[in-house]
């Protein structure tokens, strides 16, 4: 997290003098690495669910989470954010919809996790 903040500030204020309007490290840490992490999580969770747990119905939550996360990234990276801002006289932009889709995606991952785990905690009587 700290390196992303440093690279962002360096790019904005040219602290080190080595950037000319773009930063490959910042691109990697904010776009490429999260995409690889999401795909790796999806692959590993599918392997665990299919081979060990055999709870195939829970895969629908992971699939929906992937779709909403991809939609969120498409809104941010495409020109949709600018079109939304122009259409609403700059009152809202695509970031709001992107954040809402990210929230839905995280909620679906939580729902997936609750469907594949046993909820035995909290059942004890004192």
Automatic annotation (TrEMBL):
Q: Does the keyword NAD apply?
A: no
Q: Which GO terms describe its biological process?
A: protein folding
Any one GO MF annotation of this record = unfolded protein binding
Name used for this protein in its record: Chitin synthase export chaperone
Ranges that cross the membrane: 24-49, 61-80, 92-113
Q: What is the organism lineage in this UniProt record? A: Eukaryota, Fungi, Fungi incertae sedis, Mucoromycota, Mortierellomycotina
In the UniProt record, which is one GO cellular component term? endoplasmic reticulum membrane
The question of whether Transmembrane helix is a record keyword is answered with yes
- Cross-referenced Pfam families, in alphabetical order? Chs7
Could you list this entry's UniProt keywords, alphabetically sorted.
Membrane, Transmembrane, Transmembrane helix
């Amino acid at each position: 997290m700290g390196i992303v903040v440093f690279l962002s500030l360096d790019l904005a204020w040219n602290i080190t003098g080595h950037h000319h309007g773009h930063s490959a490290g910042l691109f990697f840490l904010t776009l490429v690495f999260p995409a690889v992490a999401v795909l790796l999580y999806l692959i590993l969770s599918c392997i665990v669910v299919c081979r060990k747990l055999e709870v195939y119905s829970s895969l629908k939550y992971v699939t929906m989470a992937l779709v909403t996360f991809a939609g969120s990234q498409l809104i941010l990276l495409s020109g949709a954010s600018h079109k939304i801002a122009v259409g609403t006289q700059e009152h809202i932009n695509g970031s709001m919809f992107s954040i809402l889709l990210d929230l839905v995606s995280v909620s679906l991952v939580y729902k997936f996790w609750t469907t594949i785990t046993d909820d035995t905690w909290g059942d004890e009587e004192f």
